[in-house]
Structure formats: structure tokens, C-alpha cells
Design a protein that fits this description.
About 60% of the residues lie in helices and about 5% in strands. Strands 1-2 form a two-stranded antiparallel ribbon. A two-stranded antiparallel ribbon has the order 3-4.
């Protein structure tokens, strides 16, 4: 008796009225959204425009889906074109069957078309989206869980996957290695590896994407070796294992050659983004400094007002200086009776004139009062 195992869903589709909602399709769609979201963040960080990754994905995703299906149908043609096969089933993508090798190959063609239309180097775009593609694969693999397909050899491990029997497809009930889960976790590890290496070594010119390819193929090789689904063999080894080995060697060779020929990272990943930034800087430089102009205008107005109205509430020293400079009443000592009292007044006493004269010469607040003709 199995004490622990991973249960499989009883069905991979839920009908919302006449509309079927398939778990496999949902996993693919969610994976695409995650890839575009993460790729866009990385692209903007590299200096690109925010909507570029999504625009190119409009080309890459459909091409990738077609490529993935073509690879599956070509390498597993018996259910479609073999004896008792039905070629119409080749179009039923929702029933499963996408080869990652074809998806990446033809998806790259779509990405190249989209990148060329925007004047973007494809290697730089591939570097930005590489970790997102790995995460999309990690999510998409759960579609195999919904369809109860692509599992490994029988096992009684606590994390074994319970599979229901299906005489129509030849599926035998039991507990098996959850190779979908192994590959999902491996892809998450590859995504983290690429993100770390890209930050640590500043990978460019397609080397981050090559690292993703190399990392994925290492895991796919041993996971593929565990699977028991029908597959073509070459020299007793599954076709996808051979493919993993060849693609791994190609990715490593590319990284070595690219590092020697084009070290470092691209200085510019999207010319349109650079042009937009240059235009923004140009406009910013041409705009007048409104704040400085306003300050200068206000300062000039204050200075003019101060020169025209020297006695408008300033302190005593300033008023006195302004009065002295203008040649007004401070030129005559306050002892002069006509200046202090006006014509016809009696002269001031002598004991009063001396202090007034002293205050006028001191330049203090009292001199200001004397200069303005105020009485003490």
C-alpha cells in the first residue's frame, strides 16, 4: 500500500457551458505571460523600451507553438500518420504534444522577424527573455500533470505520481516518477542560474540565452532517460537525449566563441530608446529656467523699489544712510531752530541742542529721527 504519492487530477478539462477550459492550455498561457513580464523588466533594465518584448512576443509565440507542434508530430508521427492514425489529431494541440526544441527553433524565427522590424539585435533580446522562457517551461510542464502524460518509471517513493488506468490509450494504473515535476523544478533552477550569472558576469551578445540552453539540456538529458513514453531510439538511446547532447555542445561552443569575438555587453540594445532619451535631453536643455528668471525679475523689482523708496519701513541705519545720501534734512544740524521748529518758532534751548547734535552725528536710530524732522 502506498502511504504517500502525488495525486493526478481526475480530468484535465472543465466545461464552462459549451466552453472547455483545459488545464494544459492554461499552463501554456500563464507561462507566456510570465515570460513576457520578466523579459520586459530585464529589457527595460538593459535600456530598452517597455513594450518591446510584448510586441516581439506577438511574433515569437505563434511561431513557437507551431514549431513545437511540428517537432512533436514529426518525431511522433505514428498516432497521426501511422497505421490507424488520424491526421486531424495533429491539430489538436490542446491534447498535449509540444516539442521544446521545435518551439525554441521556430520561435526564434518569429522573434527575429519582430526584432528586425524594430531594428533590435536578436541576441540582446534573447538574453533578456532567457530566464522568462525557463520559467514558462516550468509552468507549462504542469500541463502534463493535468493530462497524466510523460511520466517516468514506476516507483514507490513518497513523491511518486499516481496515474489512473486508461485502456484506450494503454495507460497502466500505478505510481511513477513525476518527471514533469523534476523538469519544472530544474527549469526554475536554470532561470535563477541565468539571472545570477547575467548580473555577476554581465553576459551579452546571446550568451545568457546560450547559458539557459546549456543548463536546460543538462537536466533534460537525465530526465528524458527516465521517461517510459513511446519515443524513437538511435543506438538504443532516446532521440531527445541525443538532441540534448548536441544542443548542449552547440550552446557551449557559442559561449566560448562569442566571448572571444565580442566580449562584454551591447552598449545599445534598442536604438529607438536611445533616440527617445536623446530627444528628451535636448528638449530639457532648450527649456528656459523659469524659476531663475522669476527670481531675477523679483530681485530687480525689489532693488528698484528699494532705490525709489528709501524710507519705507527699513531699519534706522538704512533710513539714515539713504537720507544722508539724498541730501535731505540731515545736512543741517538739529540745533538750527528753523530746521527743528519751522519758520516763526522760538529757538530751542541750548541744553536741548547739544544732545540733538550728538545723536545726529552718531548715525543711530536717534539720528534717523532727527533727519526726518521728528521732535524728541
Amino acid at each position: 500500500m502506498d502511504l504517500a504519492y502525488i495525486p493526478s487530477p481526475s480530468t484535465g478539462v472543465i466545461h464552462l457551458g459549451p466552453i472547455p477550459l483545459r488545464g494544459y492550455a492554461f499552463c501554456i498561457i500563464i507561462g507566456v505571460f510570465v515570460a513576457v513580464w520578466l523579459g520586459s523588466r530585464r529589457w527595460v533594465a538593459r535600456g530598452g523600451l517597455p513594450g518591446t518584448v510584448a510586441d516581439i512576443a506577438v511574433w515569437a509565440v505563434p511561431f513557437g507553438l507551431v514549431g513545437g507542434r511540428l517537432y512533436h508530430v514529426i518525431t511522433t508521427y505514428e498516432p497521426y500518420f501511422g497505421k490507424n492514425g488520424d491526421w486531424v489529431d495533429a491539430f489538436k494541440i490542446w491534447e498535449g504534444g509540444l516539442g521544446i526544441w521545435g518551439a525554441i527553433a521556430l520561435g526564434a524565427v518569429g522573434a527575429w522577424i519582430g526584432a528586425r522590424r524594430r531594428g533590435i539585435p536578436l541576441p540582446a533580446y534573447a538574453d533578456a527573455v532567457a530566464p522568462g522562457i525557463a520559467l514558462a517551461q516550468a509552468i507549462g510542464r504542469w500541463g502534463n500533470w493535468f493530462n497524466q502524460e510523460l511520466y517516468g518509471r514506476a516507483t514507490d517513493l513518497p513523491w511518486a505520481l499516481k496515474i489512473d488506468g486508461d485502456p484506450a490509450s494503454g495507460r497502466v494504473a500505478g505510481t511513477y516518477h513525476p518527471t514533469f515535476l523534476y523538469e519544472s523544478l530544474w527549469c526554475i533552477g536554470v532561470a535563477l542560474l541565468v539571472i545570477w550569472a547575467d548580473r555577476r558576469f554581465q553576459l551579452g551578445h546571446g550568451r545568457a540565452f546560450a547559458l539557459y540552453v546549456a543548463g536546460y539540456t543538462v537536466g533534460r538529458g537525465w530526465i528524458e532517460y527516465m521517461r517510459i513514453d513511446e519515443a524513437h531510439h538511435i543506438l538504443g538511446v532516446r532521440l531527445n537525449v541525443w538532441t540534448s547532447v548536441l544542443v548542449f555542445l552547440a550552446a557551449i561552443a557559442y559561449m566560448i566563441i562569442s566571448s572571444n569575438r565580442r566580449p562584454g555587453r551591447e552598449a545599445v540594445v534598442e536604438p529607438a530608446a536611445e533616440a527617445a532619451r536623446a530627444e528628451a535631453e535636448k528638449k530639457k536643455g532648450e527649456e528656459p529656467d523659469s524659476a531663475s528668471d522669476a527670481d531675477a525679475t523679483a530681485s530687480g523689482a525689489v532693488d528698484g523699489e528699494a532705490e525709489s523708496t528709501p524710507g519705507d519701513g527699513g531699519d534706522g541705519d538704512d533710513d539714515g544712510a539713504a537720507a544722508a545720501g539724498s541730501g535731505d534734512s540731515t545736512a543741517t544740524p538739529p540745533a538750527d531752530a528753523s530746521a527743528r521748529t519751522g519758520a516763526g518758532d522760538a529757538p530751542a534751548p541750548a541744553d536741548e541742542a547739544a544732545p540733538a547734535s550728538g545723536e545726529a552725528g552718531s548715525g543711530s536710530a536717534s539720528s534717523s529721527e532727527a533727519g526726518t524732522g521728528k521732535k524728541r
